[in-house]
Amino acid sequence: MRLKGLNCVVTGGSSGIGAATVRRFVEEGAEVLIPDIDMEAADRVASELGDAVSAIKCDVRIEADVKAAAAIAYDRWEKVDVLVNNAGSELNRAYDEMTEDEWDRVLNTDLKGPWLMCKHFVPPMVKAGSGSVINISSLNGLVGFPLSTAYGGAKGGLVVFTRDMAIELAATGVRINCVCPGVIDTGMMERWTDLMPDKNEAKKMLKGTMPIGRMGTAEEVAGAIYFFASADSSLCQGSVLTVDGGFTAQ
Ligand SMILES: NC(=O)c1ccc[n+]([C@@H]2O[C@H](COP(=O)([O-])OP(=O)(O)OC[C@H]3O[C@@H](n4cnc5c(N)ncnc54)[C@H](O)[C@@H]3O)[C@@H](O)[C@H]2O)c1
Prior knowledge:
Layout: E1 7-10, H1 16-27, E2 31-36, H2 39-49, E3 53-57, H3 63-76, E4 82-85, H4 100-128, E5 131-136, H5 149-169, E6 174-181, H6 187-194, H7 199-209, H8 218-229, E7 240-243
């Protein structure tokens, strides 16, 4: 129960890595608020976990939604201790075939969203003199892949955004760090393999790209997120932790 008494916000906590993080945080004694666009799934997670979890409709691309989510959180709680910027949107498209709307959807969800969440949630943390922000980037934010300019551009931007924020916040007591998952078995991965001519072959190929020979689980990523949420990471500021079964070690 290392997060007992802590108030946590996990964007996109209704599925995959976000939902596993919400579950882990609750197991460790935290209360969690889930801002998400999928209210049906978010309410399912909240009702499964009882009073410790609630969900609110919030599109992280829209400043008015994020501002309203912050007002709800700070109305309910005196302070927010942990913010996980997990909500994400993927795209597999060649740079010259992508539409402007697709580019905007990915950049706005994966990069502008974390900035808006920081803008509205972090100043009260600074006032309180403590807090931990965890940005969920990706392997795609560290190395190049084909068909990944929007997603990789957003996730790479998030890595540098984390480092820039870490310097701005360094003297405030608020920590900000970044987790870069590898190939993780979630809905996002299902959608990606759905696009391939042979889904089973695509999954086999993905497992083969991971030196450990398998995909990661959402729970394994949640463990790394939990590390940054807990006091065990008190010296981490602007750290970028790969959770990728050895991919970037190659
Ligand atoms: N699955 C992987 O292999 C993998 C690898 C690296 C990084 N990631 C990152 O991990 C994070 C979680 O991904 P996942 O695999 O669990 O995917 P997922 O699709 O299961 O979850 C994404 C969540 O974000 C929410 N969401 C999407 N757009 C939103 C918006 N505009 N506002 C609020 N909520 C929104 C969805 O409703 C969903 O709950 C993402 O940032 C993703 O880019 C995933």
